[in-house]
Specification:
The chain contains 29 helices and twelve strands. This is Reverse transcriptase domain-containing protein.
């Protein structure tokens, strides 16, 4: 097969790989190149210019001990499996295989279905070949892979290979699998860690992802973490697990609900999988951004749409990536993405409604901007001129196509258009607006290319996932006081506690009773009134006693009763005149008071009022010392350190 090839690339590659992988010396490979020079011409000179033999054969290793590299050890057998350059060798070998397959396709020997410009997908050890389901094609592919394995040493593992056919007789499928020596399988198959199928994925196809969540949760001792610690793990680890899937597939709502249930239970209760637990704070509040009063946990539904929108941006940018070339060849270079083509493209269409709100074109020649579906200066015409749009014959014409026919645009519309006065009036308005734009903008409809622009990214105009996500999650009514919690110089668990306190979302007895819990409502601090957030931190007898002790002690001049124990903490936080230091002090005081309440309720342990006050003052003074608002002397007189 090689001797008959008119292209000498294959012959030279076979000889070079045979010499390298058999461990020949650098002189042998140099001799091979010099001997082939008359036949290879500029190809060998290009190879010599890139110095491949020096990179592949003159290899030295060093042993590092205590960070110090030793003397170089020259490898006598060249590059082999396990060497640092072996991945580079692997890529070069598969590049040779890809060119070989493409050459067979171009010569008509290897028949492939209509799949665009690539007859194969080669990524590391995950390889897919597309071919017509005939026995002769299977024999040819098996011969190619066998020869390639003999040359490079990368042999096919038939036990880990599967044959998947579409609209093919079962007997023929069995014959093809026998010729290839592999097994038969059905869609969906796993490629690069993702389920690959031609149909819409069901919720069962995401079971592997859910199992990854459960496996990750089982490895953590989350019951020993505070809510603030679990929040960090949730944002950094759990919320990032489905990102790879969400960048390709539109998640079913049921799958998002299952993932949210796992994340919600982990946040509030730790490792209690499968058990129904109480969640005081609604999940819709948790996934709000912090500036809107939430905890800033990622909203998977909104983030899924954001990641899919990024593909629309890549589709409209001038860069010619491989996947864009593939889709363009597959769909005859059509300028739009239609929902009828595939399930994935239907998902992109759903995400395009968000995308179109903040996307526009800086028009040059008008070849990229779609007349009806893109904002090229007049907004989305399919919404602004709906009557005229209903008569359009071509849904995806470009702006340049319309302007070329602007003197007589009627052939672009239905023959019924002249009978509709509203549509005719809209057509005249569109023509007038285009002429106005052309007169006011010198770059409009010139020879330059259209430039996509993302409005949410300022002057750069480049799409970013964060800007799109913030646009989805933005709310016209931001919380006025909850965002003031997060810049405070207090531990994160204090911030979470204050966030729940200000929303009346603590697990007080009155809140539990509203959730259906049958519990006697009696405050454990004063044993007289019913328990609520307002009672604990404003009306309780213990709270009043602590406030009186601070007011009557002249030695506590660095604090005031209104700072440590305000009568209305909600008004204190909402007031713009309240300093950050004041909010930090009462946040610490209230957290210690809540901790005392929990100790009395669950552990039957209580402290004397003076000891509790001493703990509060010590913690607050230590906080002021750390933030630079207290002196060392003041801290020494306040009592022992909290640790």
């Amino acid at each position: 097969m090689y001797s008959r090839s008119k292209d000498r690339d294959v012959q030279w590659s076979v000889e070079l790989w045979r010499r390298i992988l058999q461990g020949k010396s650098s002189l042998a490979v140099t001799h091979c190149i010099m001997k082939s020079t008359p036949n290879m011409g500029n190809r060998v000179n290009a190879c010599q210019g890139s110095n491949y033999p020096a990179m592949l054969l003159h290899i030295a290793s060093r042993v590092i001990v205590n960070g110090i590299a030793g003397k170089p050890i020259t490898l006598k057998r060249g590059v082999r499996q396990g060497d640092p350059l072996s991945p580079y060798i692997f890529i070069m070998a598969f590049d040779f295989l890809s060119k070989w397959i493409s050459r067979l396709v171009s010569e008509g020997l290897f028949k492939v279905p209509k799949l665009g410009v690539f007859p194969s997908l080669l990524y590391a050890d995950d390889t897919i070949f597309f071919f017509k389901p005939t026995h002769s094609q299977a024999v040819l592919l098996n011969l190619v892979l066998t020869i390639f394995g003999f040359i490079s040493g990368l042999k096919l593992n038939a036990a880990k290979s599967d044959l998947i056919t579409m609209n093919t007789d079962s007997d023929l499928t069995t014959r093809i699998a026998t010729a290839l020596g592999c097994n038969t399988a059905q869609f969906p198959l796993t490629y690069l860690g993702l389920p690959l199928t031609y149909k819409r994925l069901t919720k069962n196809n995401f079971d592997g992802l859910l199992q990854r969540f459960q496996k990750k949760l089982m490895g953590w001792r989350a019951n020993f973490f505070s809510v603030a610690g679990r929040l960090v793990l949730l944002n950094s680890c759990l919320s990032s697990l489905p990102v790879y899937y969400m960048s390709v597939f539109k998640f079913p709502i049921s799958v998002i609900h299952k993932i949210d249930r796992l994340r919600r239970d982990f946040l509030w209760h730790g490792n209690h999988l499968g058990q129904r637990k109480l969640s005081i704070v609604p999940w819709d509040m948790v996934i709000k951004p912090k500036q809107c009063g939430g905890l800033g946990v990622i909203d998977l539904k909104a983030f899924n749409s954001t990641l899919l929108s990024k593909w629309l941006w890549k589709w409209l940018t001038p860069a010619q990536s491989l996947w864009k070339l593939q889709l363009s060849a597959l769909y005859q270079h059509q300028p739009a993405v239609y929902p009828k083509h595939s399930v994935i493209q239907a998902s992109l269409i759903q995400a395009s409604f968000l995308f179109q709100c903040a996307f526009s074109f800086s028009v040059g020649n008008g070849d990229s901007a779609l007349f009806w579906h893109h904002n090229w200066g007049l907004g989305l015409l399919k919404f602004g001129f709906q009557e005229l749009y209903s008569f359009a014959l071509e849904d995806c014409i470009t702006l340049s196509t319309f302007t070329n026919c602007i003197s007589n645009p009627l052939p672009l519309f239905s023959h019924l258009l002249p009978h509709n006065s509203t549509a005719l009036s809209q057509l005249r308005s569109v023509i007038t607006l285009i002429n106005t734009l052309k007169a006011s903008d010198r770059n409009f409809l010139t020879t330059t290319s259209d430039i996509p622009f993302w409005k949410l990214q300022g002057a750069s105009g480049i799409f970013t996932t964060s800007s799109a996500y913030n646009f989805i999650k933005s709310s016209p009514t931001h919380s006025s006081y909850l965002p003031r919690i997060w810049p405070l110089r207090i531990p994160p668990r204090f911030k979470i506690f204050i966030w729940r306190l200000l929303q009346n979302k603590l697990a007080t007895l009155d809140n539990l009773q509203r959730r259906g819990w049958c519990l006697p409502n009696r405050c454990v601090l004063c044993c007289s009134d019913s328990e609520s957030v307002l009672h604990l931190f404003s009306q309780c007898a213990l709270f009043s006693t602590l406030r009186s002790l601070v007011q009557n002690d002249p030695l506590l001049s660095q604090f005031t009763a209104g700072t440590l124990f305000p009568q209305n903490p909600f008004l204190l936080v909402q007031s713009t005149e309240t300093s950050k230091e004041t909010i930090e002090i009462w946040a610490v005081a209230f957290f210690i008071l809540w901790r005392e309440r929990c100790a009395r309720m669950f552990s039957d342990k209580s402290k004397q009022t003076t000891a509790l006050l001493q703990e509060i003052l010590s913690e607050c003074t230590y906080l002021r010392f750390l933030t630079g608002t207290a002196t060392v002397t003041e801290h020494t007189h306040s009592g022992p350190l909290p640790f």
